[in-house]
Amino acid sequence: MSVTILLFGRTAEVVGQHRIERSAGAQTEVNDIVNSLRNDFPGLNSCQLIYALNETYVSGEKEVTDGDEIAIFTPVSGG
Amino acid sequence: MDFFELTIAPIDITSVARRVVPPECGATVTLDGYVRKFTKGRETLHLFYEAYEPMALKEMQKLVEQAKKDFEISNVGIVHRLGKLEIGETSVVISVSAPHRKAAFAACEWLIRELKRTVPIWKKEVYADGEVWVESDSEKN
């Protein structure tokens, strides 16, 4: 299956893009996606990361399914 | 009418405030949040705001719905600016109308606090000697 990773603000700057497509095996959790991204972009290791799955906040244990959109970002700072 | 919007155009505060006014109300409280020049003694040149737009709108809608359950208010309007903002420009407007002002003040305070904590918008502060993506500290906000 394939998933879309969305990045914003600091995470987008560290990774150098706002959007990445990744393939994933069965029973993949958000944590697995995040860990593989941390491996590829070690700059993320100094970031506190928050996740959203299909536009809803989730914890890292949430399983992903084909076509999911996973947003990975640092604590929000609007206002 | 309730509304929640993101815009890259300058925000007209008065028109936001007027849009929430129904006949049964006696007061509207409007927060005008704008770009501060000095943060912790460091001078900001300008700000840049970025949002996860569809999710930000959903989270803003949730806040409006929750506020209307928890406070005796009539309507809520929230408009948040995105893109580059100069010092003194309005970044966010929250207008709350209510039959009586007390509930409007309380709801407006709750809304800005929750917006800063939950709505996926990020702010980059640009200084003369660098720039940084701000990360919220919900304890302080």
What's this entry about, in short?
The complex is a heterodimer of chains A (79) and B (141). Chain A is of the alpha+beta class.
Helix count of chain B equals 3
Number of domains of chain B: 1
Q: Report the CATH architecture of chain A.
A: Roll
| CATH-defined superfamily of chain B | Molybdopterin biosynthesis MoaE subunit
Q: How many beta-strand segments of chain B?
A: 9
CATH class of chain A: Alpha Beta
Greatest interface by residues involved: A-B, 19 and 30 residues
What coarse outline of chain B follows from CA principal-axis ratios? elongated
> Which H/E pattern describes the elements of chain B?
EHEEEHEEEHEE
Order of helices and strands of chain A: EHEHEEE
CATH superfamily of chain A: Beta-grasp domain
Strand content of chain B: 35-45%
Structure description:
The complex is a heterodimer of chains A (79) and B (141). Chain A has 79 residues and is of the alpha+beta class. Chain A has helices at 9-15, 30-40; strands at 2-7, 19-23, 50-53, 56-58, 69-73. Chain A has a five-stranded mixed β-sheet with strand order 2-1-5-3-4. Chain B has a single domain, classed as Aldehyde Oxidoreductase, domain 3, CATH 3.90.1170.40. Helices cover 30% and strands 40% of the residues of chain B. Chain B contains three helices and nine strands. Chain B has helices at 13-19, 53-70, 101-118; strands at residues 3-7, 27-34, 38-39, 42-51, 75-81, 83-86, 90-98, 121-127, 130-133. The model of chain B has no long low-confidence stretch (mean pLDDT 94). At the A-B interface, helix 1 of A face strand 4, helix 2, helix 3 and strand 8 of B.
Key words describing this protein structure:
heterodimer; A: about 80 residues; alpha+beta; Ubiquitin-like (UB roll); B: about 140 residues; Aldehyde Oxidoreductase, domain 3; 4-stranded mixed β-sheet; 3 helices
